[in-house]
């Protein structure tokens, strides 16, 4: 079954699910194996992968490339005959970044329309399903972001494939402070009111203090706010040396507008991976003097030869550059690759348990310039360790990597395992 | 009596609400006489009859024709534009607008400028508006309302408001004027004034009046022809003299209620008919 | 003190946009009895149309004029095609129709424009002026100015023009107006058209000072409290309610947080509902023009 690549139509979702049920009901034709396990989302001919993503909500511009990356990878796999003879069917449900929708989408894939593996949800939605996800056996293979509640305490079913917020913050603070050469930097932060935003803001605050600086203020920006005038006025009043930002494209653009309104100019901005989006600094050109995003994924166009297969898959799926030439696309593609690797390793009888055993064994899966290598072990599910800065180039509109992932390895405290920022210091960059 | 179907003809008119026959097979044709009245005890169906004529109430059965044209199936504002105007038992004015504005409302049907042109206020629209205001001024003069032209309606006494409503109906330049209890709540001096006004207007214009009124002295003084309703049925139709001596009428109405003319206007009536209007699709 | 004044100005500017949207809601509600839950989507649609028309016509000014013409026509069409056939049906059905219309418009925007927010580089400047120690955004002053002009024009239209009189008449004395020969259906169409025009003005202002995204439709969620606080039957109340909500929101945001702002607005809404259910300027029986 083929899914429309521009699934921006909510109406398509029931149709997809209906079609899926139909397909699994009558599908038992030509297969190399007669094994099926409906409760694991596996029929003789087909494997169901569940996904809950923001398709039409406020963070859609971040989640659309990610969703497209997952689908493009599996489209390519299906084009080559699928995995061990089974086609992969990615079912995407729209959650519009709303917690209740995300929860019900996730539950659906646990039992109602069982999936062999799942990906998706933002950090708040992840918090909302954290308890459930520990109680079932559905492999939850990452999302754009990794919420702290999924990792603490250890969750055997959740496999993180996002750069964690502590990782991003550790590199971001060290790099920005070094760039500006300030002994006592005055920093402001912004965040959206989601779990990852809280985590981001609190880690940045601690790191700024460790670097001898002060956090002047943190501002929480609400999704869908018409303006951020109070924040803009505050930045104009307090004149911080830089802004370290978290958010979604839409909230960040609104913030840019309000900064411009109050005459803020030449502000250095460092952002979490989610704001690696050229439309943010382009919103108000005079406001930003340098704009860096801290990420563990490289957009296909900036990854040289390693990005070429991604571009080919994206073009085959009819995607536009503004959708595929983004780190979220690489991330989705990588998540799909990791899933496929584990499913393939599970051989002829892929079940949720078998897929998990394979994921736990995944070691140093090389991803070239696209991301650091992926490694899981049975007691460490942080798959990606490594973050580097990407600098926005206003003339090309692209983000260019600054150095290699290794250059910044010294900044990482592996916070989700060590639970401490003690080993961090501001002179950690090679 | 010489019936003249060019004025108003009602045939087999029936309106039922659930099990209630508000009107039950009522037929009559007004004669050429200028002022007619509908009388009958409370709940007899008088207001329902008016509502059928103005298109606010769709009859269950029967026909209503005016000037030889069927009124059924026409929308209320179209019926109004054929020259049928009415006043209400309970005042239906804009209390916070001026007398002139309230009366002007009755004049828009005579405006030819389109909506957009009116909004843009071109020279033609402005000239037309001036003409309408002049016409309104004339009627206000006739009604003795000229000095109150720019007063807000809410500041005026009840009797004057009744006149404002009458003026709004008169500026429509109606062929058929329906007056629903025009004298209710007035003292005898005001009643005399209003009767006089109606008589003068009828003398000067080509208009027929059909009125509902409880004050039998007023009815007998004004009406040349009377239709009597009781429990939705027509029980009599004729000159005041004929009706007064009709045994059925005496039994049903006059005998019992001849004296009690000052009955209160039921409060809920307008609300009810407003609801009907919405239901009628406007 | 300076920042307090700045926040008040921001609040009035944001609030005047709420006011424009709120008046549109009140106007339609007063004359037709329908609470138009698709009103916010008209705001978002106007903003998106503005971006396409700017691309097509090349000039922001032309596009603004075009939007201010096209959107009211859409409003009139919505009345004739969708609302009018529903008149006289149970209220709930009509309400559901407007909710459905809103969802459909949202979907339409997403299909036509995709989920990415867009920009409109309009003629409204994005800089600030310093008045003493108070820094005020030029766009805020312009927004307030434009809103005031719109509100005055609307006030004149509503109280002085013959259409305005007919609109008030239909709103307050429907049966009598119709029986005086006023074509209520046409007046409703005008109400929808004028409401859409006000939504379009809000859409243009927001496109110029904020980001063009489908989230702009959520504006209605904040305009509803403005309407209720001001008094659902009062046009002046809608303006007062809008500005009050804007200022409350900014002050709460400055002294607490943006999330607190929403709570504060709804707390005031509750208080008004308890103490003065008809709203600040609403009247119980006779409705104010
Ligand atoms: N909308 C309605 N729904 C139900 N019953 C009605 C309605 N309108 C009038 N009636 C009933 O029809 C009858 C006639 O009412 P009406 O025409 O108002 O009488 P009148 O004006 O002669 O007092 C009464 O019994 C009244 O209760
Ligand atoms: Mg009556």
Automatic annotation (TrEMBL), chain B:
Coiled coil: none
Residue ranges with Polar residues bias: 271-282
Alphabetic keyword roster: ATP-binding, Nucleotide-binding, Transport
An MF annotation (GO) of this entry: ATP binding
SMART domains, sorted: AAA
Entries under InterPro entries matching the protein: AAA+_ATPase, ABC_AA/LPS_Transport, ABC_transporter-like_ATP-bd, BCA_ABC_TP_C, P-loop_NTPase
Signal peptide location: none
Keyword Nucleotide-binding carried by entry: yes
Annotated region described as Disordered, given as residue ranges: 260-282
Residue span(s) of domain ABC transporter: 8-256
SUPFAM superfamilies according to UniProt: P-loop containing nucleoside triphosphate hydrolases
Name used for this protein in its record: ABC transporter ATP-binding protein
Organism: Phytohabitans maris
Automatic annotation (TrEMBL), chain C:
The organism's place on the tree of life at top rank: Bacteria
Compartments (UniProt record): Cell membrane
Membrane topology according to the record: Multi-pass membrane protein
Regions that span the bilayer: 12-29, 36-55, 61-83, 90-114, 134-158, 187-207, 219-248, 260-279
CDD domains, per the entry: TM_PBP1_LivH_like (cd06582)
Protein keywords: Amino-acid transport, Cell membrane, Membrane, Transmembrane, Transmembrane helix, Transport
InterPro entries: ABC_transp_permease, BCAA_transport_permease
Main location group: membrane
UniProt family annotation: Belongs to the binding-protein-dependent transport system permease family. LivHM subfamily.
Protein's name according to its UniProt entry: Branched-chain amino acid ABC transporter permease
The organism of origin for this protein: Phytohabitans maris
């Amino acid at each position: 079954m083929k899914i429309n690549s521009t699934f921006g139509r909510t109406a398509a979702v029931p149709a997809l699910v209906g079609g899926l049920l139909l397909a699994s009901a009558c599908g038992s034709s030509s297969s190399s194996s007669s094994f099926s396990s409906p409760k694991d989302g596996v029929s003789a001919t087909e494997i169901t992968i569940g996904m809950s993503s923001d398709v039409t909500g406020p963070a859609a511009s971040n989640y659309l490339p990610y969703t497209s990356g997952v689908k493009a990878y599996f489209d390519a796999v299906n084009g080559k005959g699928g995995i061990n003879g089974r086609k992969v069917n990615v079912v995407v449900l729209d959650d519009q970044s709303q917690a209740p929708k995300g929860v019900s989408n996730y539950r659906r894939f646990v039992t109602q329309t069982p999936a062999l593996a799942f990906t998706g949800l933002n950090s708040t939605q992840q918090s909302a399903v954290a308890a459930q996800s520990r109680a079932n056996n559905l492999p939850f293979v990452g999302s754009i972001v990794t919420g702290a509640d999924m990792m603490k305490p250890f969750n055997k079913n959740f496999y993180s494939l996002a750069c964690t917020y502590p990782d991003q913050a550790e590199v971001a603070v060290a790099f920005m402070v070094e760039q500006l050469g300030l002994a006592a930097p005055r920093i402001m932060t912004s965040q959206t009111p989601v779990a990852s935003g809280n985590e981001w803001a609190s880690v940045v605050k601690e790191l700024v203090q460790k670097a001898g600086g002060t956090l002047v203020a943190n501002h929480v920006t609400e999704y869908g706010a018409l303006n951020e005038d109070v924040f803009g006025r505050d930045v104009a009043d307090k004149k911080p040396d830089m802004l370290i930002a978290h958010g979604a494209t839409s909230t960040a653009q609104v913030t840019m507008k309000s900064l411009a309104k109050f005459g803020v100019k030449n502000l250095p901005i460092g952002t979490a991976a989610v704001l690696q989006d050229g439309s943010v600094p382009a919103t108000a050109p005079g406001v930003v003097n340098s704009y860096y995003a801290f990420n563990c994924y490289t957009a296909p166009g900036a990854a040289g030869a390693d990005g070429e297969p991604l571009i080919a898959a994206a073009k085959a799926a009819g995607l536009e550059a503004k959708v595929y030439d983004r780190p979220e696309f690489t991330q989705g593609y990588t998540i799909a690759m990791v899933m496929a690797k584990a499913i393939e390793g599970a051989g002829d009888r892929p079940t949720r348990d078998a897929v998990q055993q394979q994921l736990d064994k995944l070691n140093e899966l090389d991803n070239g310039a696209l991301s650091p290598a992926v490694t899981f072990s049975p007691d460490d599910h942080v798959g990606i360790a490594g973050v580097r800065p990407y600098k926005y180039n206003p003339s090309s509109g692209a983000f260019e990597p600054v150095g290699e992932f290794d250059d910044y390895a010294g900044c990482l405290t592996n916070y989700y395992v060590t639970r401490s920022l003690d080993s961090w210091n501001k002179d950690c960059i090679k | 009596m010489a019936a003249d179907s060019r004025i108003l003809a009602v045939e087999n008119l029936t309106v039922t609400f659930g099990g209630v026959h508000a009107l039950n097979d009522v037929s009559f044709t007004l004669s050429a006489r200028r002022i007619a009245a509908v009388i009958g005890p409370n709940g007899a169906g008088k207001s329902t009859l008016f509502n059928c004529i103005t298109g606010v109430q769709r009859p269950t059965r029967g026909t209503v024709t005016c000037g030889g044209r069927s009124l059924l199936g026409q929308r209320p504002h179209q019926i109004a534009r054929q020259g049928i105007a009415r006043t209400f038992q309970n005042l239906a004015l804009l209390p916070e607008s001026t007398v002139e504005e309230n009366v002007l409302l009755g004049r828009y049907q005579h405006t030819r400028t389109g909506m957009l042109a009116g909004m843009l206020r071109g020279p033609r629209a402005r000239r037309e508006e001036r003409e309408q205001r002049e016409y309104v001024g004339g009627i206000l003069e006739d009604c003795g309302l000229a000095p109150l032209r720019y007063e807000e309606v809410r500041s005026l006494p009840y009797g004057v408001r009744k006149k404002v409503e009458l003026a709004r109906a008169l500026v429509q330049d109606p062929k058929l004027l329906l007056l629903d209890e025009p004298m209710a709540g007035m003292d005898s001096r005001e009643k005399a004034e209003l009767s006089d006004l109606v008589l003068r207007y009828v003398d000067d214009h080509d208009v027929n009046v059909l009125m509902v009124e409880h004050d039998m002295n007023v009815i007998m003084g004004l009406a040349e022809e009377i239709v009597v309703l009781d429990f939705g049925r027509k029980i009599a139709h004729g000159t005041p003299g004929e009706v007064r001596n009709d045994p059925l009428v005496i039994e049903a109405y006059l005998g019992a209620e001849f004296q009690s003319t000052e009955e209160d206007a039921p409060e809920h009536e307008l609300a009810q008919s407003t609801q009907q209007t919405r239901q009628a699709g406007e | 003190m300076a920042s307090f004044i700045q926040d008040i100005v921001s609040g009035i500017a944001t609030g005047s946009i709420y006011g424009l949207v709120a008046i549109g809601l009140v106007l339609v509600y007063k004359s037709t009895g329908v609470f138009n839950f698709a009103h916010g989507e008209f705001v978002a649609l106007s903003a998106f149309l503005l971006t396409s028309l700017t691309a097509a016509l090349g000039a922001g000014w032309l596009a603004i004029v075009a939007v201010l013409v096209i959107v009211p026509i859409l409003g009139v069409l919505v009345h004739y095609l969708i609302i009018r056939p529903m008149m006289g049906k149970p209220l709930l059905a009509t309400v559901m129709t407007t909710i459905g219309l809103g969802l459909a418009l949202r979907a339409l925007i997403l299909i036509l424009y995709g989920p990415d927010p867009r920009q409109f580089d309009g003629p409204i400047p994005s800089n600030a002026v310093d008045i003493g120690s108070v820094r005020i955004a030029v766009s805020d002053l312009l927004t307030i100015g434009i809103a005031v002009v719109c509100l005055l024009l609307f006030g004149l239209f509503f109280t002085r023009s013959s259409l305005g009189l007919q609109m008030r008449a239909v709103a307050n004395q429907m049966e009598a107006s119709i029986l005086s020969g006023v074509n209520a259906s046409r007046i409703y169409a005008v109400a929808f058209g004028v409401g859409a025009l006000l939504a379009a003005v809000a859409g243009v202002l927001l496109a110029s000072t904020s980001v063009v995204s489908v989230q702009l439709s959520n504006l209605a969620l904040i305009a509803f409290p403005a309407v209720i606080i001001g008094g659902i039957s009062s046009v002046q109340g809608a303006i007062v309610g809008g500005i009050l909500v804007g200022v409350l929101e900014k002050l709460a945001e400055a002294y607490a947080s943006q999330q607190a702002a929403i709570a504060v607005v709804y707390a005031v809404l509750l208080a008004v509902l308890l103490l003065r259910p008809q709203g600040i300027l609403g009247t119980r029986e006779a409705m104010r023009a």
